[in-house]
Backbone:
């Protein structure tokens, strides 16, 4: 089994070392960060592992909505990207990841937040937003709630829970 992330901390490496069948690979799953880092808004179509027919199960786990966050902030701060342009890059990164997943020949499971909800200390909803940048979400077969930011963890006046959905692509 391979686990892929942009970076693995020592603590994750230590945990993974308990499993002889787990390999950690640091890799930019968008295959676009080199371009975006230089201010080039060129979102690529990722291809790594697509020709590996031994891969029979791919799980994209709580990742897809994270892909645009830091690159888009970087482009806006460092290269004065407009909100409109930033929106296009965000959508393209999400769309490209979906297209990438759909090209694997084996089973593909997408686990991702579908709605992010902010709550006040009494648990009343303050705001909710679509973390998919308005890209159409594949239908989820099942959902659960994730208390991603309990009250007080990073803000004493609000908490956040995400509705997580699972799709088979
Ligand atoms: C919410 S965490 C989920 C981590 C892990 N998949 C899990 O479910 O425990 C989002 C992860 O996305 C990773 N990530 C963000 N952009 C990435 C990219 N371009 N390529 C690979 N991983 C990325 C971050 O490093 C972070 O670990």
Residues:
């Amino acid at each position: 089994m391979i686990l892929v992330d942009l970076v693995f901390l020592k603590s994750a490496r230590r945990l993974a070392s308990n499993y002889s069948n787990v390999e950690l690979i640091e890799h930019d799953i968008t295959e676009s960060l080199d371009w975006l880092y230089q201010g080039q808004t060129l979102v690529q179509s990722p291809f790594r592992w697509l020709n590996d027919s031994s891969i029979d199960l791919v799980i994209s786990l709580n990742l897809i909505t994270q892909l645009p966050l830091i690159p888009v902030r970087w482009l806006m701060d460092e290269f004065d990207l407009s909100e409109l342009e930033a929106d296009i890059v965000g959508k393209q990164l999400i769309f490209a990841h979906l297209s990438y997943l759909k090209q694997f020949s084996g089973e593909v499971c997408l686990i991702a937040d579908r709605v992010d909800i902010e709550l006040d200390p009494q648990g009343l909803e303050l705001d909710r937003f679509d973390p998919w940048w308005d890209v159409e979400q594949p239908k989820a077969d099942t959902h659960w709630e994730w208390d991603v930011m309990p009250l007080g963890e990073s803000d004493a006046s609000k908490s956040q829970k995400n509705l997580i959905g699972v799709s088979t692509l």
Q: What stands out?
A: The mean pLDDT is 96. The radius of gyration is 17 Å. Residues 31-168 form one domain.
